[in-house]
Amino acid sequence: MSGSGVEVFGGVDTHRDIHVGAVVDGVGRVLGSESFGADEPGYRRMVVWFESQGGLVRVGVEGCGSYGAGLARYLAAAGIAVVEVNRPNRQLRRQRGGKSDSVDAEGAARAAASGQARAVPKSGDGPVECIRMLLVARRSATKARTQAANQIHSLTVTAPEQVKHQIGGLKLRARVRVCARWRPSEAQTTVAYAKKALRHLARRYEALDAEITQLEAEIRRLCAEANPALLAAKGVGPDTAAALLVAAGDNPERMRSEKSFAALCGTSPVQASSGQIVRHRLNQGGNRQANSALWRIATTRMRTDAATKHYVERRRAEGKKKREIIRCLKRHIAREIYRLITNPPPTPNCARLRSRRKGAGITLTQAARALGTHPSRISALELGRDHNHQRATRYHDWLRTHQAAPPPT
Q1: Nearest 5°: phi and psi at 77?
Q2: What is the pLDDT of residue 395?
Q3: SS3 108
């Protein structure tokens, strides 16, 4: 088949050390299968082999979020259309005569040829991928800090009375500060060893706490650089913005519409009607971290946003339950978030606001009074810690009208 003009489709079953590729034609006939190394030279040989079989249309890759991530990036950089293929279920494997790498690769190629696999994988080559990696590190540190806190509590409960009397009535952070400063004696007593154990756990807690603080600051900075408009939306903080950006990926244009994003986040409604009762239920699928982020945004707006409160009251008057109202809110928020991710509005450059204010001889108090807010809010805008788009735009426009004014006396 080498050099023929027939259209072919590739499929790859990915592993840690090797990838197995297969090629099929437009009607699903297998043209061949080969094994390649899971590294850049192996990727290069795979592409040459694919193209030697005919006109390569697209390649289906399994595990684009794990072992196939490097291959998917390489193929995309080479200008080859890549689609993500789900691993076949056991029933299909039995129907095909068992499990083997070549059989899985052929299944991936057929899925790419038939159009059954249409999801474009995340590119994983921009700031969102950096945020994802930092989130992994922060999640691990948070889990370890919680474990250390639980162990401090357990040891305090079972410690000798002399130790329990000193720290038993303290809150966690106060208890950690006291235990971290302890200098137990070298005596071979339970009191001394209890203090040693608590000191080690307390210092571990402090180290993890400092690590989490540093990671959160870095995640906030990356979110502000990647999409300041998203971070400025009502109820959206660094945690929720990071989860939503990671769900969308560095190439959000791969999602065809806001409905695709809603399905990705598990907020698309699921029919749960029966008889004369017509209703929908919460979707249990999709990216659960993104779904949790939308839930936090919805509950925050239900507490703090006047328009959302009015909407909740109206839906309650219609007989909707709280879970159904939150489902509706999450669907609406998903639509808003999709627009902010795919087409973010321009945000003023807050780095210049401080110099412009000082150049005009305006104090923080004067600026805050003019905008009807607190000076700390203005300071947070200038330092890049607050990303309120509406406030930043008002502040930017107000400074522009006062920049030429003489300094106040």
Answers
A1: -65, -30
A2: 82
A3: helix
Which secondary-structure segment (H or E) carries 142?
helix 127-158
Tell me, what's the pLDDT at 408? 47
Alpha carbons 117 and 58: distance in angstroms, whole number: 11
Q: How far apart are CA 82 and CA 73, in angstroms?
A: 9
CA angle 321, 325, 326 (to 5 degrees): 120
Specify which residues 55 forms β-bridges with. 7
Q: What is the mean pLDDT of residues 57-69?
A: 91
0.85 exceeded by pTM: no
- How far, in Å, CA of 33 to CA of 53, rounded? 11
218 in Cβ contact with 127 (< 8 Å): no
How far apart are the C-alpha atoms of 236 and 311, rounded to whole Å?
A: 19
Q: Residue for token digits 């239920």?
A: 281
Q: What is the dihedral of CA 300, 280, 86, 240, to 10 degrees?
A: 0
State the pLDDT confidence band at 389, using cuts at 50, 70 and 90: low
Residue type, 283: N
With CA atoms as reference, report the closest residue to 267 among 288, 253, 250, 248.
Answer: 288
Q: Is the pLDDT of residue 409 over 50?
A: no
In Å, the largest CA–CA distance within the chain is 88
Residue 337, C-beta contacts closer than 8 angstroms, at least 6 positions apart: 230, 233, 244, 261, 294
Cβ-Cβ contacts under 8 Å for 134 (sequence gap 6 or more): 215, 218, 219, 222
29, 235, 236, 318, 321 from 312: Cα distances, Å: 56, 16, 19, 10, 10
Pairing of strands 30-37, 7-14: unpaired
Using one digit for the tens of pLDDT, what is the confidence trace for 93-127? 666 556 788 888 988 999 999 888 888 888 888 89
Q: Taking CA 340 as the corner, what is the angle to CA 338 and CA 346, rounded to the nearest 5 degrees?
A: 160
- Specify the DSSP class assigned to residue 175: H
